[in-house]
Every structure is written in structure tokens, then in C-alpha cells.
Amino acid sequence: MPNFETKICSRAELQARVAALPKPVVLTNGVFDILHRGHVTYLAQARALGASLVVAANTDASVKRLGKGDDRPLNSLADRMAVLAALESVSLVVEFDEDTALDVVLEARPDIYAKGGDYDMTAIPEGQAVLAYGGQVAAIDFEHDRSTTKLLKKVRAS
Ligand SMILES: Nc1ncnc2c1ncn2[C@@H]1O[C@H](COP(=O)(O)OP(=O)(O)OP(=O)(O)O)[C@@H](O)[C@H]1O
Ligand SMILES: O=P(O)(O)O[C@@H]1O[C@H]([C@H](O)CO)[C@@H](O)[C@H](O)[C@@H]1O
């Protein structure tokens, strides 16, 4: 197993693994199906807000419930987590099967919760929870006009 895969942790281990990370801890979540420049730039910016970055990845079943398409995700959870773990910006990767990452946030209690600028941090349960316990939230502006959905459209049109 490549060394970077040790960054993948189970939900049961999450609290203990987060406690061992350098602080401040930043947490974000998402699907990260076909990784693109928008994702990696955003993850590097999220990591730069603190000393460690935890990424919670949606399970395949929870991606299906998001309604991105019957064929999504293209990459399985195990593959998406391995690709995320290989990034320099990422300290820890954990899966979540719920509709939102609220419970992951309450278990990990990050100092900072980050999400792309397409989200209103005060309107999403993860952002509301972090603000309620006195943590910080950060909405990171999009720097590159990229998305997994756009990439798929390009591939299918060719
Ligand atoms: N181009 C981008 N720039 C900055 N952040 C991004 C960009 N695309 C996605 N993100 C952020 O990355 C996280 C994961 O996004 P997601 O996997 O939904 O990306 P996506 O490519 O837009 O996917 P999809 O097309 O399947 O909706 C989210 O927090 C989102 O805000
Ligand atoms: O990759 P996406 O579609 O940006 O990730 C989703 O983010 C949602 C957000 O945190 C608001 O709650 C989350 O609920 C959803 O499960 C995906 O992770």
C-alpha cells in the first residue's frame, strides 16, 4: 500500500486521528468525482487557512442521493479517497454516508470549516454547526471555471 493511503481513516478513528493533527484544523467535504484544477486549487487554499486539512468524501450511495446523474459517481469512493489522500494539501480523508457532513463536523470539531464559494456558509448545516460552537467558516471563491459535470459533457460531445 502506498504511504499516502495511511491518510485514509475510518469514521470510528476520526476523532483520535483529528486530535493528533497540527492545529488549526480545517475541514471540508464533497464528492470530488473527477478531480480537476478547480478542486486542487480550492483544497490548497483551504489547507492554507490552517495547519491541517481533513476532507470528508461522500459515499457512492450518498452521491446518488444528490441527484448528479444515475451514472455518478464515475469513480468509486475508494478511488476518490485514494486520489484525495495523494494530494500534498490533504492531511486526512474520511467517508460519510449521510446527506450532509453535519455529523462528521460534530465528531471532528474542526477549527475552520471550508467550502467552495458556491455555498452560503450560514445556510448549510455544517457551517451553522461550526459557527454555533465558536469555530470559523470560510467560503473559498472559484478561481477556475471547471467542474466534473462540464468535463463529462465535453467527453460525451466528442
Ligand atoms: N472550479 C472550482 N473552484 C473552486 N472550488 C470548486 C470548484 N469546483 C468545485 N469546487 C469545490 O470543491 C468541492 C467539491 O465539489 P464537487 O465535487 O461538487 O465539484 P464539481 O466539479 O462542481 O462537481 P459536479 O460537477 O459533479 O457538481 C465543493 O466544496 C466545491 O465548492
Ligand atoms: O461536492 P459537493 O456537491 O459540493 O458536496 C456536497 O456538499 C453539501 C454541502 O456540504 C451542504 O450541506 C453536502 O450536503 C453534500 O453531501 C455534498 O458533500
List the helices and strands and how they pair.
Blueprint: H1 14-19, E1 25-30, H2 37-48, E2 52-58, H3 60-66, H4 77-85, E3 92-96, H5 102-108, E4 112-116, H6 125-132, E5 136-140, H7 148-157
Parallel strand pairs: 1-2, 1-4, 2-3, 4-5
The protein binds adenosine-5'-triphosphate and the ligand O=P(O)(O)O[C@@H]1O[C@H]([C@H](O)CO)[C@@H](O)[C@H](O)[C@@H]1O.
Adenosine-5'-triphosphate binds next to strand 1, helix 2, strand 4 and helix 7.
Domain Cytidyltransferase-like: 27-131
Catalytic activity: D-glycero-beta-D-manno-heptose 1-phosphate + ATP + H(+) = ADP-D-glycero-beta-D-manno-heptose + diphosphate
Keywords: ATP-binding, Carbohydrate metabolism, Nucleotide-binding, Nucleotidyltransferase, Transferase
Provide tags for this entry.
158 residues, alpha/beta, five-stranded parallel sheet, 7 helices, 5 strands, binds adenosine-5'-triphosphate, binds the ligand O=P(O)(O)O[C@@H]1O[C@H]([C@H](O)CO)[C@@H](O)[C@H](O)[C@@H]1O, nucleotide-binding, nucleotidyltransferase, D-glycero-beta-D-manno-heptose 1-phosphate adenylyltransferase, EC 2.7.7.70
Structure description:
With 158 residues, this protein is of the alpha/beta class. It is 37% helix and 18% strand. The protein contains 7 helices and 5 strands, in the order αβαβααβαβαβα. The protein has a 5-stranded parallel sheet with strand order 3-2-1-4-5, with helices on both faces. Helix 6 (125-132) links the parallel strand 4 (112-116) and strand 5 (136-140). The longest helix is centred in the first third of the chain and has 12 residues, at 37-48. The radius of gyration is 15 Å and the shape is globular. The termini are far apart. The relative contact order is 0.21. The mean pLDDT is 96. Residues 28, 30-33, 38-39, 42, 68, 115-116, 118, 142-144, 146-149 line the site of adenosine-5'-triphosphate.
